[in-house]
Write a structure and sequence with these properties.
By secondary structure, the protein is an all-alpha fold. Helices cover 68% and strands 0% of the residues. The radius of gyration is 18 Å and the shape is globular.
């Protein structure tokens, strides 16, 4: 029970922080405001995070929460490529509407320069577990190539998503991420169809 409460406390802090970052901007949000908005204590905040900068890596957790919610809406009769396109479209829509592009850019910058935890690449994340499940099911149903391993296909898919996000950040969001990805991802994924 304590572990669940601990996870809920951390989740409250992360959710409140990202809501405030989006509403006020990262630089205009204080730790005290995050604590107040999350209904937690200063001790709880510093138990989980060294400071506000440590919250940047939790964007991956926000993405994983979205993936957990989306996984419950997947139609099991959908082709695996359609499932991957659906997840991509929905997540990119969430990013476009709820994540400040400057924060996403900062996250990518920290992931490029950090020597320690690279949260985006953690293969124990919900993201990677869900992708492996979809790809494995797609291979078992004869929808996806078996010439590449499940992990290779997941790596390629994640790389394509990161490339789209990186380019969108590089272009300062001057186009719709969701719309562009809806055009590009099906072309990319078509190369992974079973022959």
């Amino acid at each position: 029970m304590a572990k669940k409460a601990s996870k809920q406390t951390k989740s409250k802090i992360v959710s409140a922080a990202w809501r405030l970052f989006y509403e006020q901007g990262y630089d205009n949000t204080t730790v005290d405001e995050i604590i107040a908005a999350s209904g937690t204590s200063k001790g709880s905040f510093y138990h989980y995070f060294d400071g506000k900068d440590a919250l940047l890596g939790t964007l991956a957790d926000l993405f994983d929460e979205a993936y957990e919610t989306l996984s419950e809406t997947i139609d099991p009769t959908m082709h695996s490529i359609d499932v991957l396109c659906y997840l991509n479209r929905e997540l990119f829509g969430m990013i476009e509407n709820r994540v400040d592009i400057d924060l996403l850019t900062r996250l990518y910058a920290t992931q490029l320069t950090t020597k320690g935890d690279k949260r985006l690449l953690d293969h124990n994340r919900v993201y990677y577990k869900l992708l492996r499940k979809i790809v494995l099911r797609g291979q078992e149903k004869g929808e996806l190539t078996t010439e590449k391993s499940v992990n290779d296909i997941v790596r390629l898919y994640a790389m394509a998503e990161r490339a789209l996000l990186y380019d969108w950040c590089l272009c300062a969001g001057d186009y719709s991420l969701q719309t562009y990805a809806a055009e590009v991802m099906p072309m990319f994924l078509s190369a992974l169809r079973a022959k």
